[in-house]
Amino acid sequence: MDEVVARSRVLSRDGSSARLPVAHMVCNQTPPVGDKPSLMTFREVETVFHEFGHALQHMLTKQDEGLVSGIRGIEWDAVELPSQFMENWCYHRDTLMGIAKHYETGESFPEDVYLKLLAARTFRAGSLSLRQVSILNLFG
């Protein structure tokens, strides 16, 4: 995700109303194989939700000062908040079951696989937290 145009009152046509922000998302995904269409992996879907969180932060900003609106001039942890929040929808049962269907049969995502997905989400979460803390210690 990146910005095309930032929200700004200074750069608006008349100076009295804010120029609205515009964002774009470029998504790469697994290519088709043989006769099968291109099917997104769970991680690719999670990435789309993540990047859409950045896009929402950019497009829904109410800050009219272009240098600090949307995703500009924001601390890295604050920029990651909406994107990581949006990732949670990938683990929300109703949301996932609504978008994860077998491409040929239309069969819903299997419940046992969904439960494994939830379990895998928190596997070694403590180790990942320690990694983040160690990085902060290096640069903080």
What is the fold's blueprint, element by element?
Blueprint: E1 2-5, E2 22-24, H1 42-59, H2 76-87, H3 93-99, H4 111-121, H5 125-139
Antiparallel strand pairs: 1-2
Helix pairs in contact: 1-2
List keywords for this structure.
globular, 5 helices, metal-binding, two-stranded antiparallel sheet, hydrolase, 140 residues, Collagenase (Catalytic Domain), single chain, metal ion binding, mainly alpha
Describe this structure in words.
The chain is mostly helical and 140 residues long. The chain has two domains: 2-109, 3-Layer(aba) Sandwich (Collagenase (Catalytic Domain)); 111-140, no CATH class. Helices cover 45% and strands 5% of the residues. The chain contains five helices and two strands; from the N terminus they run E-E-H-H-H-H-H. The chain has helices spanning 42-59, 76-87, 93-99, 111-121, 125-139; strands spanning 2-5, 22-24. A two-stranded antiparallel ribbon has the order 1-2. The longest helix has 18 residues, at 42-59. It is globular. The protein starts with a strand and ends with a helix.
